[in-house]
Amino acid sequence: MSIPASTIPWEGPHWREEADTWIAARMAEHGLAPIGEVTQPHIRPWSTVLMIPTDSGTIYFKATSPAFRHEAVVTQALAQWAPEQIVPVLAIDPQQGWLLLEDAGTLVRQVLTQEQTIDRLLTMLPQYAHLQQQMAEHAQQLLTLKILDRRLSSLPRLYDALLADRDALYIDVDDEEIDEEDSLSTQDYERLLALSDDVRARCEALSAMPIPQTLHHDDFHDGNIFIREGRFIFMDWAESAVAHPFFSMQVFLRGIGYRLNLPDDAPELTQLRDAYLHAWRDYDTEANLLRAYELAQPLAMISRALTWYAATKDLPAAIKTEHALSVPGWLGEYLAHAGA
Fold first, then answer.
1. 10 Å Cβ neighbour count for 61?
2. CATH code of the domain in which 159 resides
3. Beta carbons within 8 Å of 128's beta carbon, 6+ residues apart
4. Entry's SUPFAM superfamilies (predicted)?
5. Buried b (16+ CB within 10 A) or exposed e, 149-177
6. Do 232 and 196 share a domain, yes or no?
7. Across the strands, what pairs with 233?
8. Of the candidates 305, 201, 200, which has an alpha carbon nearest to the alpha carbon of residue 247?
9. What is the SS3 assignment for 313?
10. What rounded mean pLDDT belongs to the chain?
11. Would you list the DSSP string of 168-218?
């Protein structure tokens, strides 16, 4: 389905020509020459990617919607602060939200599909935790770069503001194309309002613990992790925030469970959780780290709802619903967890 150019830049009549001109200029600055057809393997309402074969290997161009325009400057900063774990950035256009990147390597999703084990993930997770620990000292700089703010001091206000937008929650919708499980009932909504104090209490409890708020990847899954020259590379920082670091495990463990066809209580998922928490052992006791993890996971569901809200709130009605239902979907997950 075509997306109106006024909403999504890459659907505009001149966007591709402008992007190609910019890419060619940046390639010339790096002495790169194209050797084949440029393809567009990824097109979403919030981002698109061009794949460009060159005489020095494939490079990638990414553009984002205004909601995630910070990705360009954030990725550039991360590449400077942690070059071992971030793909080299060839160029950015901060105003457009454009990125030109080297090839990140082999997708971990492909490796998992072939190997069907968690062994590499057990090695990767401590490295991701170390990156988060490194970035704690840069948290304020990241916020200055307009990364998403999911700090514990901000989350209760953001939660209340999200609930105030009733249209975004699809409450008691009367639409045969919308599954009842994907929307919220009036009763659900009232329960979410009543849980505002629970959100605040969880945030306050986590704030009192010694784990720093830092870089959080809100879409941390095997499709955003690569292996390049024997190193793990973490990609796609559009949906990133300054937040409690343990939020990242919410999407990650769900994704691995899906990829390896594991039940929610699979010992492999517990192993992965524990490998990640073990990397934080210098910050608190094992028992307290587990307590922090348990406090953080419901809040991570709210963070995910907020990210989907940012991604979809300005989409045209013709395509909005199919994506925006993730907002009430994640709030429903929080509701189920809080009521358990």
1. 23
2. 3.90.1200
3. 220, 232, 234, 248, 276
4. Protein kinase-like (PK-like)
5. bbbbebbbebbeebbeeeebbbbebeeee
6. yes
7. 226
8. 305
9. coil
10. 94
11. GGTBT---TTS-GGGSB-HHHHHHHHHTHHHHHHHHHHHHTSSPPPEEEET
The verdict on 96 and 113 lying in the same domain is no
Do 58 and 118 reside in the same domain of the chain? no
Backbone angles phi, psi at 234, to 5 degrees: -105, 125
Q: Is the pLDDT of residue 76 over 70?
A: yes
DSSP state of 88: P
Cα separation of 170 and 178, whole Å?
9
| Paired sense of beta strands 98-102 and 89-93, if any | antiparallel
Instruction: Write the pLDDT tens digit of every residue in 289-312.
Output: 999 999 999 999 999 999 999 999
Q: What is the pTM of this model?
A: 0.94
Print the domain residue range for 21: 9-102
Backbone dihedral region of 166: left (phi > 0), alpha (psi from -120 to 50 degrees) or beta? alpha
Number of domains making up the chain: 2
Query: Quick one: 168 and 81 in the same domain?
Result: no
- CA nearest to 304, candidates 248, 242, 253, 224: 248
Hunting for tokens 């910019």 — which residue is that?
22
